[in-house]
Backbone:
């Protein structure tokens, strides 16, 4: 069983917020991804399915709909650069180019040392502080390309 | 620059997000008053109706009227819900985040008043997964309010009970569409549902449900505290009140500003956003988020309200203005948007699934240099096949509308892209003519 006791107790609590337990599935998948290695492996999907009394393929079908869930291994750090209109107008292409250069990865790939997963994402709601990127859940806004060096350089 | 503000008025305090900071500024007083002085659910709904408040999530639907669609609880004893739409993912839109981060108790108080008015059993606040800090702030606010007896069973010793739950999404634009949101909240793929049935009759778990945007609900305590008349004193007849205007793109001071509805777009641009950046001229602008269509500079005197923008050939949407300077490429921006809609289409309807993909491919080849003259007509034909009202939800419309607007207002630019073989060709031609960089 891939789930920890701690996670199972959290799921038990999550379920109390809804009349039907499946509603806790997406929040539960978030917690798995956070605690169990950064992505949803087939083992995790199976364990979550068993917990919710669902078929693994049903859980997979839900998980695969949502861009925040990773279904293949990703680096320890997730670097998400917004490519939508407000960021594009203020130079997000340059941030992406710089991040690619620094990591040796293309968007959707891990860096050569496997530490960083680089992706471009749709609008993150940082439009008034564009261009922006999100690193491990933290927003970095009003960026210029050189900021990417600083931010990525600071990742251990 | 002087107009009355209320939406952003409490946010200057360091502790504006805490119960202490909120109560120090009069927070929860109006909710207490409504409960203690016995203002009935109908009274509350009537006051919201009288205020003329319109939804701030994009469609501008009158809020009080929406609330009155909920079935009579005497006759329909099913569980009653509200889902607060905090999915905020319409490109250009970045306002609900400010409310949740800086004044989360204001949202909670709004939920309580809505719960009283619609006699709800529970409220779910559906927050997009990326909004960690806003989520945490609202989560903490609910916990504080619960401790203070303001959320949960027998609120403030009355017989009124209401639970408020937080729910985290996982990054899909379509989950902002109200029925996609409900499917997602139930733990499924965010596939919008055909309407009818409408949420008030068949919503979350098949029960009566109202979906409202964060900013909409945030307005409610102010309306109850100060009255519908006061609210109508701001904005204009058909679009009263203030709104949070996000302005982004090529301006000196992008930001989220609180403005009365009906303020001319030029005033927003010049007085608040500091004008087009780098001393350049305006080439194109979008008034209300990515779904609302590109306008030309000649429409910049249009008042920022629902009717005026509709008459100008666009929409108020989420009130998120996106400005493009004279060096910008409308083709590139349209391409970025069509890539977005293609990526976010849930795929249930062929018109939308295929249409968004084709639109993005056509804008791509126009941009890259493989565009043909017929492509311009093809854009129109495709968009006509996608909307209006041809699909389960309005995402298809949201892609068709900007496409039509580009063909209508920026046809010359499309022709230039065909003629000069794409973006590089256009840049080279501009240099030859000595225009721009
Ligand atoms: C594709 C699509 C995406 C939407 N995204 C959002 C959103 O992120 N937030 C929101 O409040 N409304 C969004 N809406 C509008 C909702 O369907 C709904 O009209 C709104 O939440 C109702 O709240 P209101 O009446 O308070 O505006 C979206 C609509 C569509 C068609
Ligand atoms: S219009 Fe598009 S997003 Fe909406 S239900 Fe149909 S395919 Fe899905």
Residues:
């Amino acid at each position: 069983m891939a789930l920890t006791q701690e996670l199972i107790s959290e799921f038990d609590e999550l379920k109390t917020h809804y009349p039907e337990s499946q509603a806790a599935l997406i929040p539960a998948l978030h917690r798995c991804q956070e605690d169990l290695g950064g992505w949803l492996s087939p083992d995790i999907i199976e364990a979550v399915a068993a917990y919710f009394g669902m078929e693994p393929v049903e859980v997979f079908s839900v998980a695969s709909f949502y861009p925040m869930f990773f279904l293949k291994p990703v680096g320890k750090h997730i670097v998400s650069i917004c490519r939508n209109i407000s960021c594009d107008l203020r130079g997000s292409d340059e941030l992406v180019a710089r991040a690619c250069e620094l990591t040796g990865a293309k968007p959707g790939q891990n860096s050569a040392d496997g530490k960083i997963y680089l992706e471009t994402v749709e609008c993150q709601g940082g439009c008034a502080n564009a261009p922006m990127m999100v690193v491990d859940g933290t927003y970095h806004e009003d960026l210029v390309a050189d900021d990417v060096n600083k931010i990525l350089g600071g990742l251990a | 620059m002087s107009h009355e503000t209320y939406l952003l008025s409490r946010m200057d305090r360091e502790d504006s997000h805490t119960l202490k900071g909120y109560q120090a500024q009069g927070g929860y007083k109006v909710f207490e008053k409504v409960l203690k002085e016995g203002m009935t659910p109908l009274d509350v709904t009537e006051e919201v109706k009288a205020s003329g408040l319109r939804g701030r999530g994009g469609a501008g639907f009158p809020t009080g009227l929406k609330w009155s669609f909920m079935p009579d609880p005497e006759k329909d004893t099913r569980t009653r819900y509200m889902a607060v739409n905090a999915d905020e993912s319409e490109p250009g839109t970045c306002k609900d985040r400010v409310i949740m981060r800086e004044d989360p108790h204001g949202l909670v108080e709004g939920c309580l008043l809505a719960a009283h008015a619609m006699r709800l059993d529970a409220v779910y606040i559906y927050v997009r997964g990326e909004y960690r800090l806003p989520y945490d702030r609202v989560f903490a606010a609910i916990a504080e309010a619960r401790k203070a007896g303001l959320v949960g069973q027998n609120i403030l010793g009355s017989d009124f009970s209401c639970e408020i739950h937080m729910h985290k999404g996982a990054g899909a634009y379509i989950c902002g569409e109200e029925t996609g949101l409900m499917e997602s909240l139930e733990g499924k793929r965010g596939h919008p549902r055909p309407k009818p049935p409408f949420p008030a009759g068949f919503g979350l778990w098949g029960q009566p449900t109202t979906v409202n945007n964060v900013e909409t609900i945030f307005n409610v305590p102010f309306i109850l505290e100060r009255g519908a008349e006061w609210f109508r004193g701001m904005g204009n007849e058909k679009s009263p009140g203030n709104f949070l205007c996000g302005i982004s793109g090529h301006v000196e001071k992008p930001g989220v500003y609180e403005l009365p509805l009906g303020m001319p777009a030029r005033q927003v641009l010049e007085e608040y956003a500091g004008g087009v950046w780098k001393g350049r001229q305006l080439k194109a602008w979008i008034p209300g988020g990515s779904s609302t269509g590109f306008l030309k500079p000649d429409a910049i005197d249009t008042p920022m309200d629902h009717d005026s923008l509709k008459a100008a050939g666009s929409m108020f949407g989420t009130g998120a203005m996106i400005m493009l300077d004279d060096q910008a490429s409308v083709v590139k921006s349209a391409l970025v948007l069509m890539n977005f809609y293609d990526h976010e289409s849930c795929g249930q309807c062929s018109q939308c699934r295929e249409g968004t993909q084709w639109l993005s491919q056509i804008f791509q080849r126009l941009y890259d240099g493989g565009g043909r003259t017929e492509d311009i007509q093809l854009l129109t034909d495709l968009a006509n096949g996608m909307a209006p009202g041809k699909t389960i939800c309005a995402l298809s419309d949201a892609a068709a509308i900007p496409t039509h607007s580009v063909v209508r207002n920026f046809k010359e630019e499309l022709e230039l892209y065909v003629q000069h073989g794409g973006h590089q060709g256009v840049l080279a031609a501009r240099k030859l003519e000595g225009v721009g960089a």
